């Protein structure tokens, strides 16, 4: 019985060349499907929230990130459907803002759910956008680790740093407006953690000329 099942299973295995459009594993299909669903959700969310933005700086961030995400979505769909290189490579997103964070906490009103769309604020909108960028980075990382098709894997992997850059840009924006506060440890505790590791001097059992 075991030998029969083993033979039947082997007949359904593919170890030769397959067409590029079919060069996808099961996990890959489901995971990339989730990535694309999340991208559609993020793009739709940006369009819904755009009319409520008050700060021109946030509107500029939303528009730049929307255009970039839309292009990434299109080339991901393209390579996912064909299994081949998309019409152009993944571009590199670069934020406009600097990377200076304001550290420390100050008292602010506790957060709570809004009761009306009239309460939608730049803080809420930038929080939604930040959450979408984080979800994109996580989802694409998970999908890339399970992707068989080399083109799709590369497109996903190249997109992850862009999600990180977008999230960082939004985190800096939120931090500047005190929406996203960053506490710090005291200097003594920080130094203890910063110096709690040291470089390795070699590997046990390895000849010195190889260390």
From TrEMBL:
Pfam families: Coat_F. Keywords: Capsid protein, Sporulation, Virion. GO terms for biological process: sporulation resulting in formation of a cellular spore. InterPro entries: Ferritin-like, Spore_coat_CotF-like. It is found in: Spore coat. Coiled coil: none annotated. Belongs to the CotF family. This is Spore coat protein. It comes from Sporosarcina newyorkensis 2681. The lineage of its organism: Bacteria, Bacillati, Bacillota, Bacilli, Bacillales.
């Amino acid at each position: 019985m075991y030998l029969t099942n083993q033979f039947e299973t082997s007949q359904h295995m593919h170890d030769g060349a397959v067409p590029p459009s079919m060069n996808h594993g099961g996990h890959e299909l489901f995971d990339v499907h989730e990535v694309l669903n999340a991208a559609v959700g993020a793009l739709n969310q940006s369009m819904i929230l755009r009319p409520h933005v008050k700060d021109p700086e946030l509107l500029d961030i939303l528009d730049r990130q929307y255009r970039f995400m839309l292009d990434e979505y299109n080339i991901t769909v393209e390579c996912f459907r064909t299994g081949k290189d998309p019409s152009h490579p993944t571009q590199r997103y670069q934020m406009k803002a600097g990377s200076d964070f304001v550290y420390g906490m100050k008292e602010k009103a506790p957060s709570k759910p809004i009761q009306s769309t009239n309460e939608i604020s730049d803080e809420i909108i930038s929080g939604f956008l930040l959450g979408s960028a984080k979800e994109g980075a996580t989802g694409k990382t998970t999908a890339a680790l399970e992707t068989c098709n080399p083109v799709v894997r590369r497109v996903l992997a190249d997109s992850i740093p862009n999600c990180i850059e977008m999230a960082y840009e939004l985190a800096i924006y939120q931090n500047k407006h005190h929406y996203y506060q960053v506490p710090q440890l005291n200097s003594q505790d920080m130094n203890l953690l910063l110096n709690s590791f040291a470089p390795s001097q070699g590997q046990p059992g390895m000849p010195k000329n190889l260390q």
